[in-house]
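Many introductory courses stop at the sequence. We go one step further.
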Amino acid sequence: MRDFSTDHRWLSINTATVRKSRGVEQPLPDIIEACVQRGIRAISPWRDQVAAAGLPAISKLVKTHGLELSGYCRGGMFPATDTAGLKAAREDNRRAVDEACELNAACLVLVVGALPGALSGKAMHKDIALSRSQVSDGIAELLDYAKINKMPLAIEPLHPMYAADRACINTMEQALDVCDALDPAKSGALGVAVDVYHVWWDPKLEAQIQRAGKERLLAFHVCDWMTPTTHLLEDRGMMGDGVIDIPRIRGWVEAQGFAGYSEVEIFSSGNWWRRESAEVLDTCIVRHRSAV
């Protein structure tokens, strides 16, 4: 396993981590400049942040500073209740691929979606099997387009607490079943994003990481699970503050040949988003060395 204790060469910042500073939304160009000032070599931006600043401007900044993208957040949200909704999702995901290509991202991360309408508080149906079928169909269609554009797709299984609204793929096993069905040759075009927050609890995790192998392991996300957790979405912890054995999981991932960035992705409305972003980034650097 790589030694992270002496530098932060392999640290990437998911820009959600410093989306807010003292509760105030931060422009993506400012986030990028703050990362560059600290010698952080990679980021993973969110599409809404890119859109707010303008894709051409962000593309120029990334190239000017020689930044790498450990991933691009996000595609997915495939399920819908009608043909028009499915078509809209398909078109939006193709735009996401185009944006990821412009920014030269390592992969497009897919948060696949679940029951239509549930995210806004009113699910349109209860047929999760239908949603999973639409997810598989949507990924299959997008995969053809992504292959043409040479943009790998990384399915991110989300913790089961999100099964109704954000993602009906909740384990590595489920994600890899989709990968094996749609890309049996392990071409490198389809794989998984391993986010420790979502998968740390899974008794099959080590075996499924071995099953994924180097070809399927496209991204590695880190943060920590706090006890008690006070918010389903926005109470992630800084690495080392919670109960996840992050080095052990990284060891499993790197044993398969993964040699990419450890991407810090923290949603924290009650803690880290209330702090100065400079403090958050500096803490990420320290914890990357000591707790990842």
